[in-house]
Specification:
alpha/beta; disordered N terminus
Length: 740
């Protein structure tokens, strides 16, 4: 209004001074003033309208900013008032989110932190809780009244067991779910969601812990806010391509559900609106559960996945015996109808796959690529890798070679360590890769041709060697020789024999006059039998009994023991050089002498390498410590006792620096001298003749043996260290654990 008055005065003044028709002498000043206003009333109306419009626009802008500040992002940081027709008072529906994680390798822990950050961005408090540091007996019941949402991110470990940090929590929850002293409504009011982490390769134990936690919470009358999510580290069967992508997809659904809880769309809907909300929720949950059933084929889910609102046992009603029959009939009908739907879906999917084969996924996911690259791997294509062995670096400087140099005469600076398959069928406790590589029981990934893998491996290896040019201590002649690869150790990581074109890969090595040392974990007997001749074939014999093998190797196959024994038999059928590789882990496998001798009799290997386990540092995936590493004298003692039980074997060589000894068959002891070394040129001639004859020209390990030098023999004062080299004692530096 002040603007209007000022405008009127201004217009009046202008009119008084500019209108010649007004007589100043015949009218008073007041009459002149009002006359001017009347003659210029159009201008006044325009000014008043303009002023009011500006004032109204300003008020609307200020009001909009105020409402925006009050509501916040998506309205999640302010308690929303109830519908006036339902209840007249305000209520806080979500006070915060607590994310409990059970993790062994750190994946679930990282997911928990990620989820907390996203929840906090919505304006809600969130906390990541280590299950090991949480006492469910004293604290979990409090979550029923705290109005918080509890999220459980739990991984499944060996044999379907919970991880170490979740062991007590799961044990308590299982016991409470069946203990009458707690009662069926002990966790009534607890709102929760579960996301399980597992590997579908373990068919009988896939996401067992996640399923159990979900079931036990439900049995105690906890209320699911959404159906359980499952992450799969097996990229072949993962719904979204990787466990990280599975979690992101589940997280998006969880955040939407959390938003709905904060906005009170579920509890405080009225009439038709309530029905539509519940229907939408159930439709979403049924869709998710159908996908879970299609994946796992579990009938147990049908009973556990009832509606969160009216299917919970928290209703406290007692079922009449007369009604039991009708209830079971309805359940059976539901199972049958849902099963029929699933059969139709599977049939349609099968038709699609038959018409167009499903595109295979790459073995290396982005997260895995990042982890392996950080560890120094040079990745090749979608499933292969190469890395420079520490003994290659050592021999370039003239500081000694690896135990293969001592036992078999390879030139360590000319050896390339690679693998055409990063995947493995075991998860050994002493794996120096800390289980960053994928696992699997068969090849289901995209496959790169053998020519490309070998070519890229050689190029990347040579590039790593070139980085040593001009480095102090590197010998010029060794550097030049190192650029020409003469040996290939197929033992970098994973199971190279899983690669479908492994025979082509080996032939390509031999065509370039590169010797082949292939290591397998004794889980693929048929592949061993069909393998073309290699320079030396290894089988890892990490334990001598079924129980200890399961404990140490943690194999994926259910029939791992029969596969293990059959692999040893297949090895015995080979005519070329064969080796048992024993890794001693103190307090795990060093007391099974008689069983080891029986395994040796089964496969009749040419050589037995016995090596003390290498401690690779602390790892959440393994419980090994330095206390499990045997001293060299302890390894020597074990070998001497084992040899006493093997009439046709003796200790041949020793490499003290690697804590390793070689037991050899006495057929390699000619005229009192050991011939454990390899005549590599002779081998290349023999294998070429074998290929040219189409396999008719055969040869044996005795045809390409060479005499072992005295310094490499057991009992020599050099203890396996080449006297031509200069021994270097490393002090106060982190030890490089890479190597074959």
């Amino acid at each position: 209004m002040q603007t209007f008055i000022v405008s009127a005065l201004l217009f009046g003044t202008c009119a008084t001074t500019s209108n010649p028709k007004v007589s100043h002498s015949s009218h008073s000043s007041y009459e002149n003033y009002f006359t001017a206003i009347w003659h210029n009333r159009l201008y006044l109306y325009t000014a008043a309208a303009l002023s009011f419009g500006l004032w109204f626009l300003l008020k609307m802008v200020l009001k909009k900013e105020s409402v925006s500040n009050d509501v916040g992002l998506l309205g999640l940081h302010k308690a929303v008032r109830k519908d006036d027709h339902c209840d007249g008072h305000a209520e806080l529906h979500v006070s915060g989110v607590k994310v409990f994680f059970g993790s062994q390798t750190g994946t679930a822990k990282s997911f928990a932190k990620e989820l907390c950050e996203d929840v906090r961005s919505f304006g809600l408090p969130a906390e990541a809780i280590n299950m090991k540091e949480y006492d469910p007996d004293d604290q979990l019941a409090d979550e029923c009244t705290s109005k918080s949402v509890c999220v459980f991110l739990v991984a499944t470990y060996t044999d379907g067991q919970p991880t170490d940090n979740a062991e007590w929590f799961c044990k308590w929850l299982e016991e409470a779910s069946t203990d009458f002293r707690y009662g069926k409504t002990y966790l009534k009011g607890l709102r929760y969601a579960v996301f399980g982490l597992g590997n579908s390769v373990y068919v009988g134990h896939y996401n067992t812990v996640g399923k159990n936690v979900d079931k036990w919470l439900w049995m105690l009358s906890g209320a699911r806010i959404m159906s359980r999510g499952e992450g799969d580290t097996n990229v072949v069967k993962s719904a979204n391509g990787s466990i990280q992508a599975d979690f992101v997809a589940w997280k998006i659904k969880f955040m939407k559900r959390l938003q709905a809880l904060c906005e009170d769309e579920m509890k405080n809907c009225c009439g038709k609106r309530k029905t539509s909300c519940l229907t939408t929720q159930r439709d979403e949950e049924e869709e998710e559960e159908n996908s879970n059933l299609d994946k796992n084929g579990s009938e147990e889910e049908l009973l556990e996945s009832s509606s969160d609102d009216d299917g919970s046992p928290s209703s406290g009603s007692v079922l009449d015996v007369e009604d039991l029959g009708s209830m079971m009939s309805s359940v059976k009908r539901a199972k049958q109808s849902r099963g029929d739907d699933q059969m139709v879906k599977r049939a349609k999917n099968g038709m699609r796959k038959s018409e167009k084969e499903e595109e295979r996924r790459e073995m290396i996911t982005p997260a895995l690529r990042e982890a392996l690259t950080k560890q120094g791997y040079k990745l090749i294509g979608s499933h292969s890798g190469v890395k420079l062995c520490r003994w290659t670096k050592s021999m370039l400087r003239g500081r000694g070679g690896c135990y293969k140099h001592t036992f078999y005469g390879i030139e360590s600076h000319r050896c390339m360590e690679t693998t055409p398959s990063l995947a493995c069928a075991n998860k050994c406790v002493f794996c120096w890769r800390h289980h960053t590589n994928p696992v699997g029981t068969e090849w289901r990934w995209k496959m790169d041709p053998a020519e490309k893998i070998l070519q890229d491996a050689l190029e990347k290896h040579q590039n790593m060697i070139r980085q040593f040019r001009g480095v102090p201590g590197v010998k010029a002649e060794r550097y030049e020789e190192g650029l020409s690869v003469q040996h290939c150790a197929l033992s970098l990581v994973g199971e190279p024999i899983m690669y479908p074109e492994i025979n082509d890969f080996v032939r390509l090595l031999h065509s370039r006059h590169i010797s082949s040392f292939l290591v397998t974990n004794a889980q693929f007997p048929e592949e061993i039998r069909s393998l073309v001749p290699v320079t030396q074939l290894y089988v890892s014999v990490d334990a001598s009994t079924k129980d200890s093998l399961k404990k140490i190797d943690r194999p994926l196959f259910k029939d791992f023991w029969s596969r293990f024994l059959d692999s040893l038999k297949a090895l015995g059928e080979k005519r070329q050089r064969t080796v048992y590789r024993l890794t001693l882990v103190k307090a795990w496998n060093v007391e099974e002498m008689q069983a080891y001798s029986e395994l040796v009799a089964l496969g009749q290997p040419d050589f037995i390498e016995v090596k003390g386990v290498t401690y690779c540092g602390e790892s959440s995936a393994s419980s090994l410590t330095m206390a499990n590493v045997p001293w060299h004298q302890e390894v020597v003692s074990f070998v001497q006792q084992l040899v006493d039980m093997l009439p046709q074997y003796e200790i041949a060589c020793e490499h003290e620096h690697s804590n390793c000894l070689l037991i050899a068959h006495t057929k390699f002891k000619v005229d009192g001298e050991w011939w454990t070394w390899i005549d590599y040129k002779r081998f290349q001639d023999l294998v070429r003749a074998h290929e040219e004859s189409g396999g008719r020209s055969s040869f044996s390990s005795m045809d390409y043996m060479a005499r072992t030098p005295g310094w490499a023999l057991f009992g020599a004062h050099e203890q396996g260290f080449d006297p031509v080299e200069t021994r270097f004692q490393r002090r106060n530096k982190t030890k490089d654990l890479s190597g074959c």
